[in-house]
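User: Okay, second chain of the day. Same drill as before: sequence in, structure tokens out.
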Amino acid sequence: MSTHQGACQVAKAMYSARRQDSGSDFLPLEQHKVVAISCVLRSREQLKVWSLGELDSGEAELITRFFDGIEKYTPDLVSWNGGGFDLPVLHYRALKASVQAPRYWETGDEDQSFRWNNYLSRFHWRHLDLMDVLSGFQVRGRASLADMALLLGLPGKLGFSGAQVWEAVLDGQLASGVELTLFDDPLLGNSALDRLANAAHQLVIEGPSYRAKLSPKRIRPVSTLQVSMRKKLRLRHKFL
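Assistant: Same drill. Structure tokens below.
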């Protein structure tokens, strides 16, 4: 039996067991496997769209590249339901692959600026989950990314959704199938990117951070030796 056939049989068994348990074949987050990570990077100089790694890059390499980018650039992450799906999947799969990401998991122990604004806390802004924010953090107020794209006049999921990724991978269409189907009309694809690049607004605030003024001052601990020496000096001064 080939590796491909074995993977198919394992997947069918997992989907079947999941349907029996929950009525849906949507697997638990830790059982998802990362096959591609695509990013949009908006900077002062450019708007860049690309996929991490190569077509033959394994899951561990893709996850490592993602967290290496955070380690190097400390970008602000913007997602749609990233807090509910994408990031938890990356957490579990990174743990399985032994991928370290100290900058991502920072909460202020090494960098004080992360105490009040980190990637992990739901109400912080280093990771902005647009679906969560626009819904007012209410489950019943959530909308899908495809529906919002159509509402804004942008291409939605043009005949391809996440439910079809597994079949595309099995058919060897990870490159041609997924990427081309997402924008099967080049005109629509270019118009979407053009609108994203030219209709986006960037606000730059210069000067000292106001958040630092609101942050509680960190008191430097005093050693027992220092306290004892101060007491001795005070006593000596008293007797003299």
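Confidence is low (pLDDT under 50) at residues 176-182.

User: Thanks, on to the next one.
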